[in-house]
Write a structure and sequence with these properties.
The complex is a heterodimer of chains A (319) and B (300). Chain A is mainly alpha-helical. Chain A is built from 14 helices and two strands. Classes of the chains: A mainly alpha (319), B mainly alpha (300).
């Protein structure tokens, strides 16, 4: 266990270093930061230009620049936005709650839908329930999330007029973007964002359940005369739960990336919209900060997931 | 990810309930749904100029946002027109060509690179393997869309950049699977005998080991192509794909989104094309996997 943790910890740190290096190299490829701020050199004197160069540390060798950059990163300094002239961390901090809330709600949706449907599909294998559940999973995986969002907006926000003879109604029930009216504005973005991972959870829970239902202890429980529901809920589900649970960690990390597209569709003021703004305005420091944050979140969750897996499943712990 | 309930089962369930017409080939053995969906798109991609009713960028400002047939439109524009009065059907047809081209080139280049890396990593083992596999791990933890956006910010959106990014997205999967397969193959007697007979490393890798992993490569390729198309569509949607007026389905969806309140078809139809193609490719990938390499069921 200890060796496993150490080995895993080292690879995590190496990954983070590699990403910081990549982001640093990309930053240098955007060109001289002085040019980005001023346009060109002609507007300033040579002394002023060189002084700024020293301020930015451009007179030092690249390796030294990287070490300085890394030192700043470790102190939580991601630099300043070029256009907004404010620390990137401050800008990200403002937007983060919106993205995090959306990701958490979408995550909840994917678990609440995916796990029970996965159990149902496994228990009723080969039936219409199974077929419908798996189609739901496959479509979530295949349909581009921005398109799902647009279709949902069209149906539930723009609304379709339905007339049933006696009473007519229009299905414009939900808002398209972040409003102050609480939970209602979460519904469409969360479904859009969470559908694909709900499908992933469903498939994983289903296959995990099918595997467990074949096990000897399930047969024993059945032959002892334990009721069907008790076998499924108490004996099978608990043991089948490990795989989806560990996948859940990666789901959450994946949702963070998924928000970029979904936030664009729903004009959701989170990190995704901020990164698109940064691209359109060539504000690289912001984008760099978001890349580092998302990668860190992903790598850290993967690490935590592996540890959780080891804690939950003794077979892995003892390896 | 383990996935015992494959989409092939779905097919079997729907097509395998006994009904079978004598003179037809056994439908259960073929990915019928995929073929039915993909065939028209394949024709569109190959023969776009022949089958498209209008010129790709022909603007008819009098016929802006005409609805599709059956939704208030006419047979003049079967799928309606977009905000500039361009025929949707023609643009979808040319879009199929772009999708096929982009996905094809990215898949071949990324697949070739990943396969080569996997062969080397698995065959030589040791520290080479260790380093390569760490790099693959790092590749999988990078936020692809954000890196793509960063590079687009730096270089501007262009076709070569898009192809490079998509190739980068796919190589890791090939490298991992091929490496695992090579680890098993290189212990086989025929490989050892070839070595004893004095075959060069290059010859062993290309003539003896590669044929053994070819099936895996084909399966990984079919399974990754759906994801590739989705990634291309996502980037085009965000404006980081092929620059307009190219009719990439993702950018068509993005452009049509502005008119969702009045003209749903401008964004819903291109997105539907993406979804259909990816569904068909997913089914095809599952079928290929079960056919060629059932062991991969455990990992893909």
């Amino acid at each position: 266990m200890r060796q496993f943790l150490i080995r895993r910890g080292i690879t995590t740190i190496i990954t983070l270093l590699a990403v910081s290096m990549l982001v640093f190299v990309l930053a240098r490829m955007t060109g001289d930061p002085r040019v980005l701020l001023l346009g060109d050199q002609t507007q300033t004197s040579q002394e002023q230009w060189d002084a700024w160069g020293r301020d930015f540390g451009l007179d030092k060798p690249l390796a030294v620049q990287y070490v300085i950059y890394l030192g700043k990163l470790l102190r939580g300094d991601l630099g300043d936005s070029i256009l907004q002239r404010r620390p990137v961390t401050e800008l990200m901090w403002q937007r983060m709650p919106n993205s995090a809330q959306l990701a958490v709600v979408a995550f909840g949706f994917s678990i609440i839908i995916g796990i029970p449907l996965g159990i149902l599909a496994a228990v009723t294998r080969g039936s219409a329930w199974d077929y419908v559940s798996r189609s739901f999973a496959m479509f979530g995986h295949a349909a581009p999330s921005f398109w799902v969002g647009i279709v949902l907006i069209f149906v539930f926000a723009v609304g379709i007029e339905i007339s049933l003879g006696l009473f007519d109604f229009k299905t414009d029930w939900l808002p398209t973007s972040r409003k102050e009216d609480g939970w209602r504005s979460f519904v469409l973005p969360a479904i859009t964002l969470g559908w694909a991972s709900a499908g992933g959870q469903l498939r994983l829970m289903r296959s995990s359940m099918l595997e467990v239902l074949e096990a000897e202890y399930i047969k024993l429980a059945r032959s002892k005369g334990v009721s069907r529901y008790s076998v499924i809920l108490k004996h099978a589900v608990r043991n089948a739960f490990i795989a989806p649970l560990t996948y859940a960690g990666l789901t959450l990390a994946g949702l963070v990336t998924g928000t970029i597209v979904v936030e664009t569709v729903f004009a959701w003021p989170g990190l995704g919209l901020l990164s698109i703004w940064a691209v359109n305005n060539s504000d690289y420091p912001i984008l760099q900060g978001i890349i580092l944050l998302v990668t860190f979140a992903f790598v850290f969750t993967a690490f935590a997931t592996d540890v959780l897996y080891a804690v939950l499943d003794p077979r892995i712990r003892l390896q | 990810m383990a996935e015992a309930g494959s989409m092939e089962d779905v097919l079997k369930d729907s097509a395998g309930r006994g009904w079978r017409i004598g003179w037809l080939p056994d439908l259960r053995r073929w990915p019928v749904t995929s073929i039915i969906i993909l065939a028209p798109f394949a024709v569109a991609a190959v023969a776009a100029p022949l089958v498209a009713p209008y010129d790709l960028n022909e603007v008819q400002l009098d016929d802006r946002l005409v609805p599709p047939l059956f939704f208030g439109g006419t047979t003049k524009y079967l799928l309606g027109t977009d905000a500039l009065g361009r025929d949707m059907l023609s643009r979808i047809i040319y879009g199929a060509r772009i999708t096929a081209l982009v996905a094809g080139v990215a898949l071949v280049s990324g697949g070739a690179f990943g396969t080569a890396i996997g062969l080397i990593s698995g065959y030589f083992g040791g520290w080479i393997d260790e380093i390569i596999m760490r790099i693959v791990d790092i590749k999988f933890s990078l936020p692809f869309i954000l890196i793509a956006l960063a590079l687009t910010l730096i270089y501007g959106s262009s076709l070569p950049l898009l192809l490079g990014l998509l190739a980068f997205l796919t190589w890791g999967g090939f490298a991992r699977q091929v490496r695992g397969e090579v680890l098993l193959l290189k212990e086989m007697d025929y490989v050892k005998l070839a070595k004893v007979a004095g075959a060069s490393t290059r010859r062993i890798l290309i003539n003896h080991i590669f044929p053994g992993v070819a099936n895996t490569v084909a399966v990984v390729a079919t399974i990754s192509v759906g994801g590739l198309i989705l990634a291309e569509a996502g980037l085009s949607f965000l404006g980081a794909g092929i620059p307009p007026p190219s009719p990439a389905w993702g950018s068509m969806t993005a452009a049509g989104r502005l008119y969702i309140a009045t003209s749903w078809w401008a964004s819903v139809i291109p997105g539907l094309a993406i979804a259909l193609v990816v569904v068909a490719l997913t089914l095809l990938g599952d079928w290929m996997r079960d056919r060629l390499d059932p062991r991969l069921r455990q990992v893909l």
